[in-house]
Specification:
By secondary structure, the chain is α+β, with helices and mostly antiparallel strands. It has 3 domains: 5-73, Uridine Diphospho-n-acetylenolpyruvylglucosamine Reductase, domain 2 (2-Layer Sandwich); 79-193, Uridine Diphospho-n-acetylenolpyruvylglucosamine Reductase, domain 3 (2-Layer Sandwich), CATH 3.30.465; 210-278, UDP-N-acetylenolpyruvoylglucosamine reductase, C-terminal domain (Uridine Diphospho-n-acetylenolpyruvylglucosamine Reductase, domain 1), CATH 3.90.78. The chain is 25% helix and 24% strand. The chain has a 4-stranded mixed sheet with strand order 1-2-4-3, covered by helices on one side. A 4-stranded antiparallel sheet has the order 5-12-8-9. Helix 2 (97-107) crosses helix 4 (191-205). It is globular and about 50 Å long.
Length: 288
């Protein structure tokens, strides 16, 4: 096994998820592509299951997660090496969207404001086509570098069919995003102001300080789920462990002592109420 892999067995995984659900599991932090290939090869040889882990904002762990090895990428990236004059630049999957937004603000990259405030790594954001009301990450992605199931690396050239709402359409089972080339449409002096304005909007409309996983449900085509839940008077609806946020109806806050099974029950209860009162099926955005 390569030296630049950190192995953590039977650890508390709650700190690797923004919702902080109770969970025990195994984690490998990988610092290079070569080590990632070695690790996956070893896990396949031992017939062990694994899952990728980003920032844990849209991913929830079971209470006993020891049936999987969670893999977290921590590839090297030096912001000082970034060349703002290039129209397209490569970034490793582990770089945070916060870093990319900082680059956008500094260099006035038009289109990158869509990433503002999303607590995610680049790989996780590409996996689910993360976005805000300002746009989606697919709109600034030129190509994605991928490790396939046979441990071969290929580059996916992004097309209009590569992504749809909150999902990618090109990754196959057990494929891993290594990084991506992002481009900016042009430079716009208003980008910095747009980022600041949207951050202030998020602070006033989302429960950023509570234990939550962001928006739980996918929006319906013509009906934002936050508004739907608000219209049903469900803001603040709670049990011992969880509460629908009083600030935003599509956020569920963890009050403490909860686990994934208890959360799944609470989510199903909300879905049943929405269906009974509105006849609408709402689908989870969060992964579990």
């Amino acid at each position: 096994m390569a030296l630049d892999i950190e192995i953590h067995e039977n650890i508390d995984l709650s700190r690797y998820s923004t919702m902080r659900l109770e969970s025990i599991g195994n984690l490998c932090v990988v610092n290079s592509e070569e080590s990632l290939i070695d690790l996956v090869k070893d896990l396949k040889a031992k017939n062990k299951k694994w899952r990728m882990l980003g920032w844990g904002a849209n991913q929830l762990f079971p209470k006993d997660a020891r049936g999987f090895i969670y893999i977290k990428l921590d590839f090297k990236w030096n912001q000082e090496d970034f060349n703002s004059d290039l129209k397209s630049s490569y970034f490793p999957a582990s770089v945070s969207l916060n870093n990319l937004v900082s680059l956008a603000k500094k260099n006035s990259f038009k289109g990158w404001e869509a990433l503002t405030g999303i607590p995610a790594s680049l790989g996780g954001a590409l996996f689910m086509n993360a976005g805000t009301r300002l746009g989606e990450i697919c709109e600034i992605t030129e190509s994605v570098r991928v490790l396939d199931e046979n441990l071969e690396i290929y580059t996916h050239k992004v097309s209009s069919d590569s992504f749809s709402y909150r999902k990618n359409n090109f990754l196959k089972k057990n494929e891993i995003i290594l990084g991506a080339n992002l481009f900016h449409h042009e430079k716009d002096d208003k980008t910095s102001d747009k980022i600041t304005e949207y951050l202030n909007y998020r602070k006033s409309t989302q429960p950023l300080k509570s234990k939550n996983c962001g928006c739980v449900f996918k929006n319906l085509e013509d009906y934002p789920v936050g508004k739907l839940i608000d219209d049903l008077g469900l803001k603040g609806y709670s049990n011992e462990y969880f509460q629908i946020s009083n600030i935003h109806g599509n956020f569920i806050e963890h009050l403490g002592g909860g686990n994934l099974d208890l959360l799944a029950e609470f989510i199903q209860e909300i879905k049943s109420i929405v269906f009974d009162k509105k006849g609408l099926n709402i689908e989870c955005e969060v992964q579990y």
